[in-house]
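[scheduler] slot 2 assigned
[scheduler] job type: sequence-to-structure, two independent chains
[scheduler] chain ordering preserved from manifest
[runner] begin chain α
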Amino acid sequence: MLKSKYEQVESIELLELIRDSNDNEAYKEFVQRFLPIVKDQCLTKCKLRKLDKSIGMQIAHDTLEKTRKSKSFKKEKLNGSDSKSKITGWLFRISSNLFYDYHNSQKCNDHVYDFYIDELFLKANELNVISLAEKRDISIKILKKLNPKEREVVITDIEYKRSHKYLPEDVNESLANRIGVKKSSIRKIRERAVMKLNNAIDEINK
């Protein structure tokens, strides 16, 4: 097997080359380096969200394809200890946004929110839920109290606050664009959502 002439090229330099000249050989080298990592992350998300593996595989490939045209890549703003970790974090953000796009495209996506409601139930430690069917029914009932913007904010919070104390700035900006509001409005939307969720749980407990 012939070695790629880009095998020794540093990853950020390789990505810049792809975006500036659309070099197919450079892109193949980039895919070889990062597709396995992105694919593993996407398949893990599918397992957690009970989605078919094929969805994760497609999103992984779409993530790499977006690197050719993405305008969000700014190497001076990447976080990480080395070139690989910086690009990996950036790719994970792209794949997360593609998962949001997938869920939003579905006519019925109540299952997306089940994992958050489960955590809410455990934290509140007040709801006496026995069966999975009952848990799902209550979850849907609670989530219907939120409007689409509030649901999107809650899901984004849960997605990122597992590993971040605050939402990264680019994620906050992407969220604001998705729901059509100013970034400064997200905090108020979040506060309304939390109040509605707590009220809904109180109603069920009566």
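[runner] end chain α
[runner] begin chain β
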Amino acid sequence: MVIETVRTVVNYLIDLLSGDLPALYYRWIVLLLAVQIIQLTVTYRYFKTGKGFAVYFAEGTAGFAVLILAGILLSKFFAFIIEDAFIRSSGMAHAFISLIITTAYVATEGLKLLLRKKVNDKDRRFLLMLALALTANSLCFYWLLPLTEAMFLASRAFMVTMIVAVSILMLILYHFEEEEASPLTEKSTV
């Protein structure tokens, strides 16, 4: 498993840096990275995090890179599990699925912070985040997958599995980003 992960990362970096990926991929990733940078700048300004801008920016861009690589691994994993995941495929299918996943995550990032700030009830915020994640993933797969039909065609079972799995993973990431009050930092009332 570790060897496959390293192999996937190395092959992706070789494809990315050698210019072997389609022009659509490079335009898409540059546009998505620009949106991520703008979003990081705006969210840092409006949602004070207590971190310095350089640290916040570095965490955001590193998370972007990790998300792209994790999306490729997730796509390969579910393609291995689901029989006939791709009706027609080229070698770029997993990279484009990863971009769709990353697009959904970037699209929900600002709304997630807004939910955290505006909705105080954790249960309600969780349900709203679930609805947001499912909606964003569904819309991204529905609107962005047709852009890649010339290169590959994914089965409906694969798309539904990816939408549900990525939505659940987004909720897990959202949960771990929640700032919980530490029992050590709370003032005792005794």
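[runner] end chain β
[qc] chain β: The helical segments are 2-18, 23-46, 53-81, 93-118, 122-144, 156-177.
[scheduler] slot 2 released
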